[in-house]
């Protein structure tokens, strides 16, 4: 730091920092272009029940950058939240998801599948969020009961009254809620009984080493027990092996998502037939 270097020395701007700043500016600029040129793609990853039947999918955003190729959301979502760009991008995601739901509604084989959409705190906290979601559903003709919103505990850290009012409004229209990455946030558990939540999602961080880590297993078990006792659904994410699935099943978890059942794919490449090539527990 400049101060540590001493008062009489002139400290120049760290060139590494300069690069970071300009890289960020370039990325922000590229993100504006991405919206304009529609460089986003929505991938879908299937979610199954304990019979291996598909119950729905999670929509996961991808950015097809003209030079850098496919960029994962972890690399650009935080920046879109800081700049507010997540709002138009999130609108696009919801539009796509509603369209897919409307499409699926026409076929008995797909009409009961849900689509879970990740919602950023920034997006949810906009005054017109509820209005927007309802409008998109109405416009597309999608069944609100098939739309699930994945929110995180960070949303529940403050203005819980506002959050509750919006959730109740959406829930009354049939929309359901899942708490993503459950157990990784800092919120108190008391919100669970105050809010219209349908599902807890066990974070993949607890699933990854669940076979060998007693701690991870204990946490996953606590989430499952909590969910059951509050009549909430519980789904595990990051299920990669049969061992994962079998253990989670024995622990009482009924829904799974992960590479074992399928990686996130484009709509056209999604295989919505039942998963049969997996050993049953
Ligand atoms: P998330 O919602 O917790 O999504 C789960 C992540 O785990 C996804 O990463 C998914 O591809 C990955 N995953 C699924 N199964 C497995 C598995 O078996 N093993 C491993 N190692 N990973 C698995 P992805 O697609 O890179 O998304 C990262 C995060 O970006 C998401 O985490 C979500 O928080 C955020 N995100 C994605 N799409 C959107 C979006 O449309 N809007 C917002 N606001 N955030 C999004
Ligand atoms: Mg999610
Ligand atoms: Mg998650
Ligand atoms: Mg996660």
UniProtKB/TrEMBL annotation:
All residue ranges annotated as the EAL domain in the record: 24-278
Name the record gives this protein: EAL domain-containing protein
Organism: Catenovulum adriaticum
């Amino acid at each position: 730091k400049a101060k540590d270097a001493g008062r009489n020395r002139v400290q120049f701007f760290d060139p590494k920092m300069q690069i970071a700043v300009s890289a960020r500016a370039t990325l922000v600029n590229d993100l504006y272009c991405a919206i304009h040129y529609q460089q986003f793609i929505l991938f879908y990853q299937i979610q199954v029940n304990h019979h291996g039947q598909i119950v729905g999918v999670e929509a996961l955003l991808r950015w097809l950058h003209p030079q850098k190729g496919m960029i994962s959301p972890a690399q650009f979502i935080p920046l879109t939240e800081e700049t507010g760009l997540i709002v138009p991008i999130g609108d696009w995601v919801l539009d796509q998801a509603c369209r897919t739901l409307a499409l699926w509604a026409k076929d008995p084989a797909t009409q009961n599948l849900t689509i879970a959409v990740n919602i950023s705190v920034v997006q949810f906290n906009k005054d017109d969020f509820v209005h927007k979601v309802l409008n998109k559903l109405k416009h597309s003709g999608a069944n609100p009961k098939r739309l699930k919103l994945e929110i995180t505990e960070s949303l529940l850290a403050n203005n819980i009254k506002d959050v509750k009012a919006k959730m109740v409004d959406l829930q009354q229209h049939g929309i359901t809620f899942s708490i993503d990455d459950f157990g990784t946030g800092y919120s108190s558990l008391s919100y669970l009984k105050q809010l219209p939540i349908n599902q807890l999602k066990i974070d993949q961080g607890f699933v990854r080493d669940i076979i060998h880590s007693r701690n991870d297993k204990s946490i996953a078990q606590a989430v499952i027990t909590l969910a059951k006792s509050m009549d909430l659904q519980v789904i595990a994410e990051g299920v990669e092996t049969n061992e994962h699935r079998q253990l989670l099943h024995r622990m009482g978890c009924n829904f799974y998502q992960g590479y074992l059942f399928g990686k996130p794919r484009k709509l056209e490449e999604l295989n919505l037939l039942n998963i049969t090539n997996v050993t049953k527990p």
